[in-house]
User: Which sequence fits this backbone?
């Protein structure tokens, strides 16, 4: 028996036209072609998608959860990046 | 679907350095934060989840066997198409769950190996045989009904990948229960013989379905940690009572009688009171002595062995294709 494990792929599905592809899960396949076929069977049995992307899991570079504060904390003080920071008189109407 | 693994937890061992991280971890859980695979987590949390998710996945896969038994003998094309779709869903659920377990740094092959060598458990319910077509109705109605009761709270489990897999599964599972109940309804409105089949199926599946929720709260000493970690949200007995309360009126609507002489409605609190569960039977089935334990494992082993050449051939074919592409690129350069 073969001991080699099939590579892991991450599956992304576009559920409707105009939406972006969204991560739905992962699966094993020997290559990208089989990953697409398996993704269709495993993740779209009820018309969940119009388009599938499969990406080798090993190809994904992720940020480290421990860096969360260093990466994202600086933006929390920059409230002037949000429209609600600016006061516009009611009489001006919607802006 | 099947989470009797919720009832055991690995021993807790913490170094002082971990104590602080563990306090932070618990604070996140208390704040209803989701834990993701790359986040720090106590080793016991990881082990408990791996075992539970794997057991859940194994249950989905082994659960295909008792129902698969009737695919070729379904009474109509409509029933056959529905049963095929249901069994295919169970396979899909197994795969979602293996994928969720793998985010915890364990390979699917390793988990499958644990199932095939008998090291890992799966839900006790699948060690009962499907003797008649009515059993397919009873499984959908009762077994999937009990599974849904168990699984809905798991959609809010603290571990993100497990919770997300459960959301998908719960969405698909409700068709399973309805198709089962519809089979029971059709049999109960049929000939006296058909109704007798439905009654016989209820008689055989009722108590094993109640056992699916696991030992009584008095016996399961590990619940507290699982609850604190928000892996588990309700106790076994609470979920079992919820299931009984929901299911008994459905059975009466079918005109069937539950095999429990002590089943009575408690006007005071609005719950159905049921008789004592035969825990010795449960223990026997869980420890390998149920009616079908050996058959189920044998069937899984055979499928695994007979599929080995397919797995190897697919890998070899992919390697050959890759080599061809590489050679063509080299030649072009």
Assistant:
């Amino acid at each position: 028996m073969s001991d080699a494990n099939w590579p892991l792929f991450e599956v992304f599905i576009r559920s409707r036209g105009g939406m972006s592809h969204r991560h739905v899960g992962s699966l094993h396949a020997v290559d990208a072609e089989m990953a697409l076929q398996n993704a269709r069977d495993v993740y779209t049995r009820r018309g969940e998608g119009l388009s599938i992307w499969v990406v080798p899991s090993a190809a994904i570079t992720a940020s480290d959860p421990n860096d969360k504060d260093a990466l994202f904390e600086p933006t929390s003080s920059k409230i002037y990046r949000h429209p609600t920071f600016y006061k516009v008189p009611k009489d001006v109407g919607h802006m | 679907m099947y989470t009797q693994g919720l009832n055991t937890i690995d021993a807790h061992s913490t170094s002082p350095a971990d104590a602080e991280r563990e306090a932070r971890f618990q604070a996140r859980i208390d704040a209803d934060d989701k834990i993701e695979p790359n986040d720090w987590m106590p080793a016991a949390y990881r082990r408990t989840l791996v075992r539970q998710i794997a057991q859940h996945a194994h249950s989905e896969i082994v659960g295909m066997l008792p129902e698969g038994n009737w695919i070729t003998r379904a009474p109509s094309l409509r029933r056959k198409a529905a049963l095929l779709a249901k069994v295919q869903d169970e396979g899909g659920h197994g795969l979602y769950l293996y994928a969720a377990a793998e985010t915890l740094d364990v390979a699917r092959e390793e988990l499958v190996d644990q199932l095939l060598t008998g090291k890992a458990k799966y839900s006790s319910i699948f060690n009962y045989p499907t003797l008649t077509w009515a059993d397919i109705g009873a499984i959908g109605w009762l077994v999937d009904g009990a599974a849904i009761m168990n699984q809905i709270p798991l959609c809010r489990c603290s571990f993100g990948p497990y919770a997300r897999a459960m959301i998908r599964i719960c969405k698909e599972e409700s068709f399973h229960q309805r198709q089962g109940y519809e089979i029971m309804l059709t049999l109960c409105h049929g000939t006296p013989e058909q109704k007798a089949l439905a009654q016989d199926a209820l008689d055989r599946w009722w108590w094993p379905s109640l056992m699916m929720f696991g030992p009584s709260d008095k016996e399961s000493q590990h619940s507290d940690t699982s609850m604190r970690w928000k892996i588990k949200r309700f106790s076994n007995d609470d979920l079992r009572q919820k299931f009984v309360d929901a299911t008994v009126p459905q059975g009466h609507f079918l005109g069937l009688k539950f095999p429990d002489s002590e089943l009575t409605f408690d006007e005071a609190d609005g719950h159905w009171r049921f008789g004592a569960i035969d825990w010795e039977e449960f223990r026997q089935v869980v420890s390998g002595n149920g009616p079908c334990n050996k058959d189920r494992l044998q069937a899984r082993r055979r499928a695994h062995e007979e599929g080995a050449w397919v797995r190897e051939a697919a890998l070899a074919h992919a390697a050959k294709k890759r080599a061809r592409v590489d050679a063509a690129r080299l030649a072009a350069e």
Strands of chain B lie at 264-266, 271-273. The longest strand of chain B covers residues 264-266. Chain B is about 65% helix and 0% strand.
